[in-house]
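Ticket #4471: structure output looks truncated?

Reporter: J.K.
Steps to reproduce: submitted the chain below (623 residues) through the standard prediction queue, then opened the result file.
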Amino acid sequence: MLQNIRDNSQGWIAKTIIGVIIALMALTGFDALFRATSTSQDAAKVNGEEITTSELSQAIEIQRRQLAQQLGKDFDPALLDEKMLHDSALKGLVDRKLLLEGAADSKFGFSEAALDQQILQTPEFQVDGKFSADRFDQVIRQLGFSRLQFRQMMGEEMLIGQVRAGLAGSSFVTDAQVEAFARLEKQTRDFATLTFAPDLAAAKVTDAEVKAHYDEHAKEFMSPEQVVLDFIELKKSVFFDQVQVKDADLQAAYQKEIGNLAEQRRAAHILIEVNDKMTDAQAKAKVEEIQQRLAKGEDFAALAKEFSQDPGSASKGGDLGYAGPGVYDPAFEKALYDLKKDQVSVPVRSSFGWHLIKLLGVEAPQVPTFASLKDKLTHDLKSEQVEQRYVDAAKKLEDSAFEASDLVQPAQELGLKVQTSAPFGREGGEGITANRAVIQAAFSREVLEDGANSAALDLDPETTVVVHVKEHRQPEQLPLEAVASSIRAQLMKNHASDAVKAKGEALLAGLRDGKIPLAAKQDGQSWKVLEAVSRSQEGVEPAVLQSLFRMPKPTGKDKPVYSSLKAADGSFVIVRLNGVNQAAAPTDAEKSQYRRFLASRAGQQDFAAYRAQLESKAKIERF
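Returned output as attached by the reporter:
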């Protein structure tokens, strides 16, 4: 149904948005972009083109979810800088607008056939290695897209990808650059480290210091603002036990299911596009020329690789894989289903251009038994009734909650139970209070300050809730007794770290000016000596390696260079660079590897410069 997806997508809107996930946005690191239909106030304008506050809110939420996925159990929402998230998301949306405008100005483009092939060959849209229109619809619904939105987003990503690839592909590096990089990359260094750990036991902190720190940083020791919610939860699943399905309806649904089954045909094709560079007559003439070569015995797959202008299938000898009815252009499909196995069609005109089509194989449909489909059919038939009941109940819940001053009456009317959440702050809590829609509603003016019930909130396609603030806990100063132990522990770490730093810097100064002789042990600690260490040496702290390879080369064999750094645990580390070792000349394989790396890096820099140039010339208004 790929052609139908393209033709009918304008009028097809997904009824249910299952959730927000990370998928795209190659520029800014977050992976999905939802096209808002809201006409709300603009967040920015780029050369007169609006970025809505709805788009910005969705982009911020995507970044928040990405961070939560990346950090896992270490994710602490309370530590998020909301302004940083806002600015980062807005910059990403602005960059995207600029790049799409740049792609349009530079006449980048792609054919609908190329976009079709991208969709057909996406593994997530396939079942048993074949494109499935039903699977396609299911996946994009789960992503929160309509068909039109998904095609638009895919098209935009292809355009931006072309811009990026064009700039990256034009980058080059000279032999001298490769040689210079190889010398630095393969260089090794001989060094030693001396580490002094902080002595917490020797650190003394008085009660007066604790009190002084508490008084000076009083604002840091406040309880968080929190709310406790009453809420009622409506679940779609409760309605499944309330509906029945007749045997006759099940049999009718089964007959319809197997009636839709069709054989799968494996097609290959050679496409000559009709575009601004080739007229219809020229394309047809080219296809007829290829047809004559086939008639003389030349291989179809070889000719497809040489001549076909379908980038998705040409490299595979024109092979499009198996697909059923409704996938291809109508003219293409009719010609395909008129063929016998291994037969090649006459030239066929589609909306993309002229084709030669070859039937590579046919698979008859496998008809499942009624018993194997009964559970699925029962669920599908019930779902139709349940969906309407759920929609009606959600509407009744919203109306009742709007009219009531609390949740008691709405709960009674729908036979639901009023539940109470644990206290939580603006960063969210657990269960439903981890949902951003619930958090935003709980701290909105209407719910928090005016005491109203919230609107009906869709947590997911299966759950609707209404919330009411039961208790609002304002931030309060925590007593000294509650935080004294944590203050004392931090001050002890600070004192111990300061003490070991002073000790280490005194030794470092003495070593540098020669007043303290170099010895195997210094102040009771032994030097840890390492030789021929590379920039990516395993077993060496990255901070030490970074410091080491920034140090200047010693001027003589017995004239080491010194540096220092503070480790993450508060230790003071002295680094002694003894010598620098130049490596052998790089091999041809290494040169090729370095050249690819440098060209890629140059391409990224060119792309960043191009983006900056677009921004400098654009009229950008942020509101």
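Triage note (M.O.): checked the attachment and the full token line is present. The chain has 19 helices and 19 strands.
Status: closed, working as intended.
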